[in-house]
Amino acid sequence: MAEVATRRERLDELDIIRAFAILGVIFIHILGASFQFVGKWSTTWEIYVIFDQFLRFAVPVFVFLSGFTLGLKYFHKSFRLIEFFKKRVWRILPWYFFWSAAIYVYTHFVVMEDIQQFPLWKLIFLGKADYHLYFVSMIFQLYLLFPLILFLIHKFKRKFIVFVFLFQASLYFASSLLAVGAFKINLLWGDQQQYLFFGTWIFYFILGIVFAQSKYEEKATRDLKKMAVVLLVGGLLFSVFDCLRVVARTGDLIIAARSSRIPVLFYVVGWLIASFVWAKELLRMPDALCKLLVYLGKKSYIIYLLHTLIIRIVALYILPSNFLNLLIFSALILVFSIILAEITDSAGRFAFAKVTKASFFVKI
After folding, report:
1. DSSP state for residue 204 in the 8-state scheme
2. Number of Cβ atoms within 10 Å of the Cβ of 339
3. How crowded is residue 200: how many other Cβ atoms within 10 Å of its Cβ?
4. In this structure, are residues 348 and 95 in contact, taking their beta carbons and an 8 Å threshold?
């Protein structure tokens, strides 16, 4: 019974971390809709920038947890590739197709937004129905590579992990130089192309796999906590400074604030280490708050898929043009996203439970 309780607590810890991640994703997109209503370089604008950079842990945490859960299950266990991939397909793609279609119909036929048109294959395979759906294609790339990654971790261990970190850091450095015009190459490598490429996130995925097998003594844990604090504080300050510097140089906040930058890499690594070494502390929060966060974590994938549609609909009636409107705007998006996610998940369970004998839901 003690072992079952420990496993339940670990699952709750992961769900709470997922809840923080999905809240981070939502508020990044809410801030994205809010910048136009404040003057550039005003105090409010600078506060928004700081908050935006603080939230940049969100997507990396989802990638990290995907690696973590796979590492827990498969690190010391052989598995059949066909069954592994079928399970990933069934858990991820059905709701992705449904909400991609819903968002596409709404943006192209209901409100008829003036947005870029993409061929069907890009809508399906590259998540081009909306700006956030790159995640599904990217995480599926990592799932396809997971057996190879697992083999390389077993064979080369730390050398492979260091290589991947240097690869991702080099990619960030090169893309940052390209973004500020330090050099020019005939390559389409914008914000969305970077996010879609698995290499932009692969170190977080591998770090999750490794942490799933890590057990540290008390002294080592204290050292990790110190490292986490240094990376969190130093990385965030560096990230904010770098963001403001790039805005001043290019005038483009999207380029300056993006997640694929070296300062964000260090900040996120600190955040991931902190979430690992202080995970049990999360369960000491008030019981009602823990239950709410665990619930959000369980619904996080569906909320992720549909929340931009809710942002668009709410924006028809109220805009985050001042602080009060921002609070109302945010509250409405959170409430309606949760309600619609619950309806979606319940409908999926009811419609497909007899066929699948499993939930039509996956945690990312």
Report:
1. H
2. 11
3. 23
4. yes
Cα–Cα distance measured from residue 106 to residue 309, given in angstroms and rounded to the nearest whole number: 8
Alpha helices in the chain (DSSP H): 2-34, 43-54, 58-74, 81-105, 120-125, 134-156, 158-179, 191-196, 202-211, 218-250, 253-257, 262-277, 287-298, 300-315, 323-356
Dig out the tokens for 53 from the structure: 């950079």
DSSP 257: H
How far is the C-alpha of 203 from the C-alpha of 218, rounded, in Å? 26
Give the residue among 250, 245, 241 at the shortest CA–CA distance from 181: 250
Structure tokens at 100: 């991609």
Contacts of 46 (CB under 8 A, 6+ apart): 244
CA-nearest of 288, 283, 340 to 310 is: 340
Residue corresponding to tokens 């990376």: 231
H or E, element range at 357: none
Model confidence over 62-104: pLDDT tens digits? 999 999 999 999 988 888 899 999 999 988 999 999 999 999 9
- pTM of the full predicted structure? 0.92
Which tokens belong to 265?
Answer: 């890499």
Q: Residues 113-133: pLDDT tens digits?
A: 877 788 999 999 999 999 999
Nearest to 189 by CA among 204, 179, 203: 179
Q: Is 111 exposed, middle or buried (0-12, 13-18, 19+ CB in 10 A)?
A: exposed
Q: What single string gives the DSSP state of each residue in 48-91?
A: HHHHHHHGGGHHHHHHHHHHHHHHHHHTT----HHHHHHHHHHH
